[in-house]
Specification:
The chain contains three helices and 14 strands. It has 184 residues and is an alpha+beta fold. The relative contact order is 0.14.
């Protein structure tokens, strides 16, 4: 994704859902952000984590998803909401929020973003604040060196832990007891 917006116009989810499926972008406060294909490290990391999430949550009420899968963090009935994101990975435990059509309406329980040079600041700042405000319970930010795990609390506070890969290759979830994601 580029830090450059596609247009200065203000778009909504109603506009977004009419665009071609192969038009990969996110909509943040009505501004379109184009998404580029992830690099090899990003792809490998995403697949490695997706397999672990699938194995851990199989047979539970929670379902993991991978990008591209649209998330309307603040859905409105009239489709005038102007935020649609596509996290790299997510886990949704409320089956009423997701559909087979590829859309989540509301905050997933867990979101994982894998950093790249073009999305670094966007994921660390903009999406961090959006996910916190929307009620995402846990947000993982994965870089080549470390993982930052942010547990967002209902009072607006965040508990953050950083795990360096030199010291630790298995990272625990703060909200799902027994979930440890391995990075090796």
């Amino acid at each position: 994704m580029s830090d450059l917006a596609y247009s200065l116009d203000h778009y909504t989810y109603k506009d977004y859902k009419g665009w071609p499926e192969d038009f990969r972008c996110e909509l943040i406060y009505g501004v379109v952000y184009m998404m580029s294909s992830p690099n090899g490290w990003h792809q490998q990391t995403s697949w490695m984590l997706a397999r672990q999430l699938d194995e851990f949550f199989r047979g539970t009420s929670c379902t993991p998803f991978t990008a591209p899968y649209d998330v309307r963090l603040f859905p409105q009935d009239n489709e005038q909401d102007d935020i649609v994101v596509q996290p790299d990975l997510m886990v949704i435990c409320d089956k009423r929020k997701w559909s087979l059509d590829g859309i989540c309406e509301g905050a997933p329980d867990l979101i994982i973003e894998i950093l790249s040079q073009t999305t670094n600041l966007h994921d660390l700042n903009t999406k961090y604040e959006l996910y916190k405000r929307a009620g995402v319970r846990e947000y993982w930010i994965v870089s080549k060196e470390a993982v930052k795990v942010c547990q967002f609390q209902s009072d607006g506070k965040a508990i953050e832990k950083r795990y360096d890969f030199d010291a630790q290759k298995s990272i625990p979830s703060s909200i799902f007891p027994g979930l440890f994601l391995k990075f090796d």
